[in-house]
Design brief:
The structure is a single chain. Strand 16, helix 9 and strand 17 form a beta-alpha-beta unit. This protein starts with a helix and ends with a helix. It contains 16 helices and 28 strands. 44% of the residues lie in helices and 17% in strands. The protein has 899 residues and is of the alpha+beta class. Strands 1-3-7-5-6 form a five-stranded antiparallel β-sheet, with no helix packed on it. A four-stranded mixed β-sheet has the order 2-9-8-4, with no helix packed on it. A three-stranded mixed β-sheet has the order 11-10-28. The chain is flat, with a radius of gyration of 43 Å.
């Protein structure tokens, strides 16, 4: 069944390519062995001989020749009649060896021809690879590459079925068939781009010729018109002279009649003017009264709204005061408990000292001098060790309470500070050598304050074994920040006020929960005399939602094919206060390259915000980190390792497939959602990383197995409204797309074009007559989109009034049939949307107008961009861009539900 496997794998290789399924016929040279080869196999080989390669055939042929030569040296004539049987055996052996030699030589010829075909195919394949690697290949280049791949495949098919190379030829043919599919796809893409360029050039040439033609016709008409005017002028002058005399007399007669008519007309117009003035006065009076009524109604509405807002503000203030009062009472309770414990400890220590004093020996028995005694367990004022436990930006006695137990709501925070900046091959946390911190401002401060009684003691800082490889601790000295030995072997430089800086080498992930127990110990003569422990945690990484303000929009310059898109993008974005960063030679789909996020750290009377982006693992050499002009301190990290996926499923790992909601009930910083295509979901290591942050998870998976790109941003988008804190969710609706077409045909617009200027251009009626396409989209709505909507309402607690179903239609392979308006980008009150190229009805794009109507209650301003280049590549505005958004300024620890 080898030929069945050959055909099946060839079909799979071509499935993801736009040209569809390529059927490879099974050549007869592979299906049937050659006649000579069959004859070669018919003869019996020498006993024990079973050659498996061409070299072994050569050796077998040489041995047969030697055996024939040896037989020829011994004559086959018998001197006596009784020995005639020996001659017969001698002749039989000679004939058998001769037949075997012929068989082997025939087989050698077959194998040599197979090897020659194999080598020729490899040459053609090498030429095809060399052509495909040329810079900026054209369609002709890809067509030449395609032809060479086909020749290589045809050459492999000439290898006989029973040749030693037959199995390898089938596997190599399958490999070449996949490369042929890729070359064919690239050729189609190049042809599409060249066709667009040729069409643009042809339009410009036609316009130029048409302009020249019009200019020539205009000049010819002007010349003839001037000649005509000259003749007419002369004729008119002659006639005018004759008429003037007659006219003079007629004028005198008419002047009398005119004056009479003017008098009557004046009286009539005066009456009409007075009537119009009366009517205008009445109209203005009615309008004034209506304006006064509307103004009173508006003021009443504003008054009621102000009263409602004032009540809401007072309620919020009351709740905040109650929360602060409860927090204050809790702090007072903890402080009283701490003081009581300290008092009891002091009493216990005093009692122990009294007991020791009563049992001490006489001075004569202790003649040897000993060091001055040090209190075995220092009290809190004498041995203070704490970070910013209450996250108020400063370290003091109030940070003692709860310092041993860290949570998202309370406890000292550590910043991730990857000093490799994504350049090293070894992760920072695996490196044993610790150097001085690259940015001391990113260290989390911890204070160790001591009394003078510890001056003769040694001080050590240790960390638990699990967290120790993932953090670094430094001591601030007169020589700068010095690394601290966390093994307990090397003491600190003594000071009564020790300042430590802590940094994390990585975020919390599937292998480490992000917390560390730091222990400060004082020893005297090898004995521990005081110790205390604090627990710290890494500040979690968070993604800003689409509703956050934008500071920068990033797009890749693809040359003339997307120059108009970039121009329109700048016109739409720059008035909002955001910048447009144009990157040269970067990837087409900017949304997939990296996911921009941030971390927070408390500061006195404020918080510090740090931008951190997750870099994509796909094609790292083609995907350098994008540094924002607005955030020069942007840090870029990688999570996980690249995965080996097929060309279609590899889109699952693009960061367009990782999105976050705005704040929702139970998730004040938003909740992450992603596309799950079944066999290839979003990268599990990144999902575990999101889960380990414990703030925007657990992530919600959405079924995207039916989409060509497998990415969730093709069907779901959250859009901010004019009301602060409010948003709507746009979701793709194939059913709405079908209804839009039916509505147009019902109004008599069946012959109007849709998908204007695209490769899928057709008419409304033609689309509706394609019953397979219509049924496919209705099936997607019922079996895919409707269950997704119900899941989103359940997981994100959405109401029906928050959901907008945007008309979209999908092709059979899961791409947007017309430009996808869901794959859009909210930018500071404006929504950047793909131009759907819908039907033009009375000069208005009907599909554009439908989206405006859907977003009208939300007060969203829409800018439509010409993304035809991206649509032909099966993507749209959001996929083609990336955004840098402002981090949330409210501390996450104050937004958590338990706060």
């Amino acid at each position: 069944m080898r030929w069945v496997r050959y055909i099946a794998i060839a079909i799979v290789n071509g499935f993801g390519v736009v040209i569809g399924i390529i059927w490879v016929a099974v050549p007869t040279t592979v299906a049937q062995p050659s006649l000579n080869y069959q004859l070669a196999l018919s003869g019996r080989q020498p006993d024990g001989e079973n050659p498996q390669s061409l070299s072994e055939l050569y050796k077998l042929r040489d041995r047969l020749k030697v055996q024939l030569d040896n037989l020829a040296k011994n004559p086959d004539s018998a001197p006596f009649p009784a020995e005639l049987w020996k001659s017969a055996i001698h002749r039989q052996q000679s004939q058998t060896l001769t037949q075997q030699l012929e068989n082997v030589q025939s087989q050698i010829q077959i194998e040599e021809r197979a090897k020659y075909n194999w080598d020729e195919a490899a040459k053609f394949a090498a030429q095809a690879v060399l052509i495909g690697r040329t810079s900026n290949p054209s369609s002709a280049t890809w067509e030449q590459s395609q032809r060479l791949w086909q020749i290589a495949i045809n050459t492999l098919r000439l290898i006989p079925h029973d040749s030693f190379l037959a199995d390898g030829a089938i596997d190599k043919t399958i490999e070449y068939q996949g490369n042929l599919s890729v070359a064919t796809y690239e050729m189609q893409v190049a042809r599409s781009v060249e066709k667009i360029r040729a069409e643009e050039e042809e339009i410009r040439e036609r316009a130029r010729k048409e302009q020249e033609k019009k200019e020539f016709a205009r000049r010819e008409i002007e010349r003839k018109e001037q000649e005509k005017k000259d003749r007419a002028r002369k004729e008119l002058e002659r006639q005018e002279f004759e008429k003037q005399e007659l006219a003079r007399k007629e004028v005198e007669r008419q002047e009398l009649a005119r004056k009479e008519v003017e008098r009557q007309e004046f009286e009539k117009q005066e009456l009409a003017r007075k009537e119009l003035e009366r009517q205008e006065f009445q109209r203005q009076e009615l309008a004034r009264q209506e304006l006064e009524r509307q103004e009173l109604a508006r003021k009443e509405v504003e008054r009621q709204e102000l009263e409602r807002q004032e009540l809401a503000r007072k309620e919020v203030e009351r709740q905040e005061l109650e929360r602060q009062e409860l927090a204050r009472q809790e702090l007072e309770r903890q402080e009283l408990a701490r003081q009581e414990l300290a008092r009891q400890e002091l009493e216990r220590q005093e009692l122990e000292r009294n007991q020791q004093a009563t049992s001490q020996p006489t001075p004569e028995s202790t003649a040897t001098p000993t060091p001055a005694p040090v209190t075995p367990a220092a009290s809190t004022p004498n041995f203070f060790f704490a970070g910013d436990t209450n996250r108020d930006g400063q370290i003091n006695e109030q940070d003692e309470a709860g310092k041993e137990q860290w949570s998202l709501s309370k406890g000292a925070l550590i910043l991730f500070n990857d000093r490799n900046n994504d350049r090293g091959k070894i992760p920072t946390w695996k490196q044993t050598k610790v150097s001085a911190p690259r940015r001391a401002a990113m260290l989390s401060q911890v204070n160790l304050t001591l009394s003078e009684s510890f001056k003769t003691s040694q001080l050590f800082i240790t960390a638990d074994s699990i967290a120790s490889p993932h953090i670094s601790v430094f001591q601030k000295t007169g020589d700068g920040w010095q690394p601290v030995d966390l093994s307990g072997a090397k003491p600190l430089v003594f000071s009564t006020n020790i300042v430590l800086g802590v940094e994390a080498k990585q975020f919390a992930d599937r292998n480490w929960n992000g917390t560390v127990n730091l222990k400060a110990t004082a020893q005297n003569n090898g004995q521990e005399i005081a110790s205390t422990t604090i627990q710290m945690g890494v500040s979690p990484w968070m993604i800003p939602p689409n509703t956050a303000p934008v500071t920068e929009v990033q797009v890749s310059d693809r040359g003339s094919v997307n120059s108009e898109f970039i121009s329109q993008l700048k016109q739409a974005v720059e008035p909002t206060g955001a910048k447009v960063k144009i990157l040269q030679g970067d990837r087409t789909w900017m949304q997939d390259t990296q996911k921009n996020g941030y971390v927070q750290l408390p500061e006195k009377s404020d918080i510090r915000l740090f931008n951190v982006a997750l870099k994509s693992n796909t094609e790292p050499e083609k995907n350098p980190p994008v540094k924002s002009t607005q955030n020069r301190d942007l840090k870029v990290v990688k999570i996980g390792n690249p995965r080996s996926l097929d060309p279609v499923s590899q889109w699952s790992d693009g960061y367009g497939n990782l999105q976050v909601t705005p704040p929702i009930p139970g998730h004040p910083m938003g909740r992450v959602y992603y596309g799950n295509s079944g066999n290839a979901s979003f990268n599990p290591e990144v999902l575990d990383f999101i889960q380990a942050q414990r703030i925007q998870g657990p992530p919600v998976d959405i079924d995207t197995s039916w989409l060509l790109t497998r990415q969730v941003d093709e069907i779901i988008n959250f859009i901010p409204t004019q009301t602060p804190g409010k948003y709507v969710m746009a979701i793709a609706s194939p059913e709405a797309g079908v209804k839009l077409l039916e509505e147009l045909e019902g109004r008599g617009y069946g012959d109007v074009a849709i998908n204007r200027g695209l490769s899928t251009q057709t008419t409304v009626s033609a689309a509706l007559k394609n019953r397979a396409l219509i049924q496919h989209n209705l099936y997607l709505q019922n079996q895919k989109l409707n269950p997704i909507i119900e899941k989103l309402k359940r997981e994100f607690l959405l109401g029906d009034d928050q959901i907008i179903q945007v008309p979209v239609m999908f092709g059979y392979s899961g791409y947007a049939w017309w430009p996808n308006m869901v794959n859009s980008v909210p930018v500071n009150g404006k929504l950047l949307v793909s131009n759907p190229r819908g039907p033009m009805i009375e000069g208005v794009d009907y599909t554009q107008e439908r989206l405006r109507q859907l977003l009208l209650p939300a007060g969203v301003s829409v800018s439509f961009l010409d993304d035809r280049y991206y649509q032909e590549l099966k993507g749209n505005v959001q996929s083609a861009t990336n955004t840098v958004r402002k981090p949330e300024e409210r501390p996450f620890w104050q937004s958590l539900p338990n706060n």
